Amino acid sequence: MKLDIAKLLLRLTVGVFMLVNHGIPKLSKIIMGNFEFGNPIGIGEAPSLFLAVFAEFFCSIFIIIGFKTKWATAPLAFTMFVAVFIVHLTDPFAKKELGFIYLVSYIIIYLIGPGKYSFDKK
To answer: Are 19 and 61 in contact (CB under 8 A)?
Structure first.
């Protein structure tokens, strides 16, 4: 039971923080018609923004509620990998620290599963 509560707290914390601080602002950009965004993997600004919104908004919601949790961690982990190892590669560690924390958190959620208090119930 304690482990399932820990899994829930991890999912809620990481999911809500990503959703509120990154997903919603990026979705708002799209809604306002502003498609300016980085192009870190060479697919264009708009496609990069849409992929980031998919991960940071929609996949965060999936992680919060524990639905298709393991599947939802992949886009988020990839997004954080790109942020840390491409976008902020030459920046000081302090600039990429949050990205590392998110990346490791998504890997942990993938490895331990969502827990009993989720739609997946695993």
So the answer is: yes
Claim: this prediction has a pTM higher than 0.85: yes
User: Residue 53 is part of which domain span?
Assistant: 2-112
Q: Kindly state whether residue 121 falls inside one of the protein's structural domains.
A: no
Position 118 in a domain: no
Write the pLDDT tens digit of every residue in 50-85.
999 999 999 999 999 999 999 999 999 999 999 999
Burial status of residue 63 (CB atoms within 10 A of its CB: 0-12, 13-18, 19 or more): buried
What's residue 29's pLDDT?
Answer: 97
